[in-house]
From TrEMBL:
The keyword Cell wall biogenesis/degradation applies. This is Cell surface mannoprotein MP65. GO terms for biological process: cell wall organization. The lineage of its organism: Eukaryota, Fungi, Dikarya, Ascomycota, Pezizomycotina. PANTHER family: FAMILY 17 GLUCOSIDASE SCW10-RELATED, GLUCAN 1,3-BETA-GLUCOSIDASE. It comes from Cryoendolithus antarcticus.
Length: 395
């Protein structure tokens, strides 16, 4: 007699691409690998012994004990993960693609690069970078992109009109240098007492983009809080850590030569940073994008606690280095991602939760709805609807 015993072991590995918000916002689905081990067990049972008399009539029957089964089992070994997986607490997380400018007219932006950076809230003891002013000193930040719904550039007057509706934030993050956005945003932001977190989006064009920032600053570096180089380039698989590090080093050299002494960083998803700790040493602090909406187990009221926990994980992975969350938000419309449901009320709840968890070192994503973006399979139809302040005043 033979019996079969089947054992199933399932392992999931995280393949990250935080699919792009086309802002340079990307969120990718994780791949799940399944391994099935079959264990065959063979047991041989000895038949009964019947005793008979001289006429062949049964007198008695005995049943010997069955022999112990022999087991031939294949040893189980877990498959190598598809990609470095974060700890179980984020297994349900599909990292959003970070925000980045659309391919504007005459400008084709590659996928952004990244560098870890986490500035913990007031409770953190991480040391701040030695360089100039930082996002940590300006309270909550917010992101902004100077593009019309059709993807064309906004004028200086339109940017100024948009900034008329942005209040209560000490710093604004932009992603690139196209559309004359650095001088336009600098003018509009400084008029409201805000600093600018500038960005070099194309790491293959560092010299030219750095020069545009230098020209816009006009040696008034006090208005520039930080300069980032790339956005989620490692997470997207477009660049290696070494490529991003080289671009950051080049930018820092060019900018310092023009008198800038502030932080230079690279931005990536928190998942990519934890999986690629080499990113921790790329910038003056660690800069990470983190969206609770892309964890299907999180509700809007859990957004702040989720983001804070990931900041702590990033900082720990980076030896306690200061970390700043450079994107975190919640959509007001779109399809549900499990327990994460987009709605105006949930957006308000999530934003309030995030603000409560962080007194500084965080950029809310984003100021206004971005109708120039495009959805993909991993964005839940929500790409247009992250605007905390609704639609742009300039249209």
């Amino acid at each position: 007699m033979k019996a079969g015993l089947l054992t199933l072991a399932a392992l999931s590995a995280v393949a990250v691409a935080q699919p792009a918000h086309n802002h340079r916002h990307r969120h990718a689905k994780k791949d799940v690998a399944y391994v099935t081990d079959v264990e065959y067990v063979t047991a041989t049972a000895q038949g009964p012994v019947v005793y008979v008399d001289g006429n062949g009539n049964p007198i008695s029957t005995s049943y010997p004990a069955a022999a112990a089964p022999t087991v031939a089992a294949a040893a189980y070994s877990a498959p190598a993960p598809v990609a470095p997986a974060p700890s179980p607490e984020t297994s349900a997380y599909v990292a959003p693609s970070s925000a980045a400018a659309p391919p504007p007219p005459a400008y084709t932006a590659p996928a952004a690069s990244s560098a870890p950076a986490y500035s913990a809230p007031a409770s953190s003891s991480a040391a701040a970078p030695a360089t100039s002013s930082e996002a940590s000193s300006t309270g909550h930040g917010i992101t902004y992109s100077p593009y019309k719904g059709d993807g064309n550039c906004k004028s200086a007057d339109e940017v100024t009109k948009d900034f008329g509706g942005i209040n209560g934030y000490g710093i604004v993050r932009i992603y690139g240098t196209d559309c004359n956005q650095v001088p336009n945003v600098l003018s509009a932001a400084t008029a409201k007492g805000m600093k600018v977190f500038a960005g070099i989006y194309n790491i293959n064009n560092v010299a030219a983009e750095a020069q545009l920032i230098i020209d816009a600053a006009k040696s008034n570096w006090g208005a520039i809080d930080t300069v980032s180089v790339g956005n989620e380039g490692v997470n997207s698989g477009q660049y290696t850590v070494d490529q991003v590090a080289g671009a950051v080093s080049s930018a820092k050299s060019i900018l310092s030569g023009a008198g800038y002494s502030g932080p230079v960083v690279t931005v990536d998803t928190f998942v990519a940073i934890i999986a690629n700790p080499g990113l921790c040493n790329v910038g003056d602090y660690v800069a990470a994008n983190c969206h609770a909406f892309f964890d299907s187990s999180k509700t809007a009221d859990e957004a702040g606690a989720f983001v804070l926990s990931q900041v702590q994980r990033v900082s720990a992975a980076c030896g306690g280095k200061k970390t700043v969350i450079t994107e975190s938000g919640w959509p007001s419309a779109g399809s549900a991602n499990g327990a994460a449901v987009p709605s105006p009320a949930n957006q308000q709840t999530a934003v309030s939760s995030i603000k409560s968890a962080f007194s500084s070192n965080i950029f809310l994503f984003t100021a206004y709805n971005d109708y120039w973006k495009k959805d993909n399979a991993g964005t839940f139809g929500a790409e247009h609807h992250y605007g905390i302040l609704g639609d742009c005043p300039s249209g």
